[in-house]
Protein 1
Amino acid sequence: MKVSVDMSKCQHYGQCCYEAEDVFRLDDDGKLIYLAEVDESRREAVESAVDVCPMQAISID
Amino acid sequence: MSVAIVGGGLGALRTAESLVAAGYAGEVTVISDENHLPYNRPPLSKEALKEGVSAEKLEFRRRAATDGVAWMLGDGVRSASFADRILTLDSGRELAFDGLAIATGIRPRRLNVPGPISGRHTLRTIDDAKMLREAMTVAKSVLIIGAGFIGCEVAATARQLGLSVTVVAIDQAPMVRPLGFQLANELQRRHESKGVKFHLGVGINAFLGEESAKGIQLSDGTEHYADVIVEAIGSIPNVDWLEGNGLDLSDGVIVDSSMAVVGITFPAVAVGDIAKYPHELFDEIPRRIEHWNLPTETGRRAGKTLAAWLAGDKPMAEIVNFIPTFWSDQYEYNIQSFGMPGLADTQRLSYGSLNGPCVVEYFRGDTLVGVVGIDSVPQLVPYRNLLMKRE
């Protein structure tokens, strides 16, 4: 599964990290970093991360 | 078997998704008076006013599992008969249901004072945002009534568009009820440094103008005119269609912690801005909270409840363990909150300085009840877990 975050929308609020901490995390400067390619077994968690993003910046295929 | 979800916003979408995910295989119909599929409202006071409104860009991603959901748009529900389990729509159509999800949300509260009705904008829907953007595009000045989050976000956007901005409110400081005076006074200072003029602690006597409102008279007798007038004085729950069924509708719809409606014997849930329930991590008092994350949290729970109840097994209520969370972008500042800072009796600056990035902790007695940060997302991360731990 491919994951992408529109960094022009992302405000680094980090809500996605609570849903899928193995895919999304904030670095020491508070900037979002994420895995662009994620195993299909994590689809439910990543879909939840898409749902809770207040900026609706995350998309998956 | 059929489920009617009344209301077509985020709470409706999450309820439908959760219902299907929980194994419910019957019909699902979402009935909404809006003409749009569920969309994200926070950008309406920011990007949509700045860059233009596009329903397609604002629509939420809908999971493939909900492809079978029927979306009945542009036709609201006028009334409901619980005895017969039938809805009557604005168009006169009738719709029978076995299970009901109440997701009609809120609408802007309006001022009830003398003067013209027309020429007064509110901001809740895509259509509201389109009209406000059109008006602001040709305007030089805007007058905003109300200094809550919507009022302050519109003020910030209007300044970024180069308009002259005046905010009037009965409150003594902007956003003071959720944030308290420490941060409210600081955010007022930041707005003023961007050129916003405030008239606070004043009521509105009347709207001025012949056919269309051109200004307002305040309770101190002064008159203020602007090209665009926005009313942003809070909201009221859309409960009118539920009347006549014996429910307490004085402030939304009362549900238990499984989102089951209290006082209904057939499978019925309520979600989102309209749902009133105790946030048990804080206290036992039922509250209706209009934060962005709660339609998702309540919808996820309500769909499960409805699926189980329709299958003959009404679930036990479990503790409400989600944390009210909000965000607000004003100018270059990001404000984020966890918990219920509005409950606090004391506040403490715990990081940074008030005129820069900062975190303020909110306490009721000795108990942490909320936290608000400005441009401090990494510093806020531990607080969500702290608030989730029940003392």
Note: The mean pLDDT of chain B is 96.
Protein 2
Amino acid sequence: MPFNSCFALVDCNNFYVSCERVFRPDLWDKPVAVLSNNDGCIISRSGEVKKLGIKMAVPVHQIEHLIKKHNIQLFSSNYALYADLSMRVMSVLEEFTPRLEVYSIDEAFLDLTGIAEQNPTAYGQQIRKSIWRNTGLPVCVGIGPTKTLAKLANFAAKKWQKTEGVVDLTSPSHRNKLMHRVPVNEVWGIGSQTTKKLNRLGITSAWDLAHQPVDFIRSQFSVVIARTVRELNGSACLSLEEVAPDKQQIICSRSFRNRITTRPVLAEALTDFCSRAAEKLRAQKSVTDSIGITIKTNPFNLNEPQYQRSANLKLNHATQDTRKIVSTAKYLLNQIFKTGYRYHHCAVQLSHIKAETAPRQIDIFDISANAENINSRRLMNTMDQINLRFPNSTALASRGFDKRWQFKVEKRSPHYTSCWTELVSAKM
Amino acid sequence: MIQSAKKSGGARPGAGRKKGSSIYGETTKAIRVPESIIPELKTLLETRKKLAQQVPDLFSTLLFPANHPSSIKLPLFTGKVAAGFPSPADDYIEKTLDLNDLLIQKPAATFFVRAEGESMLDAGIHPNDILVVDRSIEPIPGKIVICALNGELTVKRLTNTDGKITLAAENPAYSDITIHEDIDMVIWGVVTSVIHAV
């Protein structure tokens, strides 16, 4: 008997907007959009907003007139809420398969091999109904013998309403019909540069790509794109990644609400970013020995003098201690800070990330470093545990107290699911 | 067995390195190991090599500590260690009660909602109480539900009288709402418990 794999991609529709709507029935049929950090750009749009022709990532100030005219409801991003609802979605999906890959905050691949072959579409509808019922979020389901085809099926399920949110591409005839209608840039893993080159070669639809000889694609592009061709033809090359790989680089970067002109205030912001980055580093049980910072003025404000600098330092021994990372970042800031500029953005970047258990060079000139290490781990561990139970309760004093540099979240919805004083109310 | 006519080729007895003659004083074997632990293994082998050369008999009696010792969680016993009579409760391992076990059947579908108003007083729901709402439960007549009524979340008891779906109040001062075509109503979840401070 031939072995046929079966994958599904479940993707939440307009995830952030849908999360906001769960608790706001008054907005179920109104145009709604969610803004990026600092309330700068549109990052999630309801169907009504898409119909108005508002594109993804448009700066808010460019569409003020449309927002007023159509009374578009705007929200600052409320990541605590989105993360909570995302975990609920993933937990419901686990009821449908033992093998799940959480692909992003609002998408997951399910391995349905040996589970859904009898009637994939019916199984997909069951998944959709269950997520709607349990969480109040609408999703679309794409099913296919490979991850690339499942992704393509999901695109179709989102695009064409009469699919009722589920598309099954397990049959080759369905595949052929659909691939003629899908432009090649909608295929998973085909970026804009590759699309340009493919178009020059006369390859414009997904069907065109699927019918290229694998060897030709490998020689013209890469082994990755060649694999995509095989996946489009139904032979599974990509397997489910049930355990997410650790990050190789951790970046924490923000734009400020108000411009910063002095070094102490910039240092406070930097301390906060370092603390967050170090927390993430310890959460994945890693250490870093390369710390970099970037500071810059607002490049869109041409009336102001512009300045942008980055600096990086390689440490003698890898660390995960917030204090060490902060002091390094501050040292770097002293090197690159210049007065007379209005700073708008800063970033901290930890690279060369390794597992904390990886063998390390011991500094023979500083034998005390080892003992320090054990104490530091204990302290950081304690701090992380306290912050887990009482969020943001302990921090380095150098982070400052008034957070003048904090970014804009003027339109944030309540923390409906993570704060007792912000629960949704119901009338009686 | 068929003897080969050729004299050359194949294994020859007595050829090659003598068994146990490696620098470690015993037979060696090729294995695949993760790249990240190569430096550690090299240091370890270096130590064994030195030891094998110094005191040939000692290495087999040495124990090397594990690099990543595993940990085992032990249950906590509460009895005091005393020289006198042992506590009769020592046989019972302490277990604490978790309210979540009592109030939440399905965490993924459970939300907390704050009640406002007085129309459900007779059902034991007071203003400012916290309602535990499970979205996964079937909203059958008789259940207290949260519904989206004309764009507003509302708490009422779902009833079915003579085939008419009604959102009933539990307070004589309030009237029931009969659902008809012009009313926009969607059930949001089923109330399973009320958390009320006294």
Note: Chain A has a mean pLDDT of 87.
